[in-house]
Amino acid sequence: MGRLALLALRTVMVALLAGSVFVQAVMVPLLAADMKDADATVRVPVVVITLLGLVTMVRRGTVFSHAAFRYVDIVTGAFGTAALLTFALGVVLAPGEAVAPGVVLLIGGVMVAILGIALIVLVLRMLLAQAVARDVEAAEMRAELAEVI
Fold it and tell me: What is the 3-state secondary structure (H, E, C) of 42-65?
């Protein structure tokens, strides 16, 4: 990766870290206060489905396998789609005086943050590919060693 890409990635990561600290410190407690009256049938299934999917891959030992690429590709596509939809929202709201220009600028910032997340996931996909290749290589070496022994 070039220096400019690395600088952009670092800048986005710092902005996302600051945003995540804000979300954790301010927004999550507010959301929890709002959701306390919500029915458990709304909150519980989302958490359970997400955790079961991750735990199943860990239990099977398939986190570093070719099956994991499907999940990473889905996440990358979801973030790409979210960025496009956010951009479309900014384009729709930009003309006229329906909203303040600052709101459109904030939407643009959110779009850049979403694209930054997609870029991070893409980099993580490359790391996953390297890990899978190393895992396959290690399995082959174990098989060769087992033949020798």
Answer: HHHHHHHHHHHHHHHHHHHCCCCC
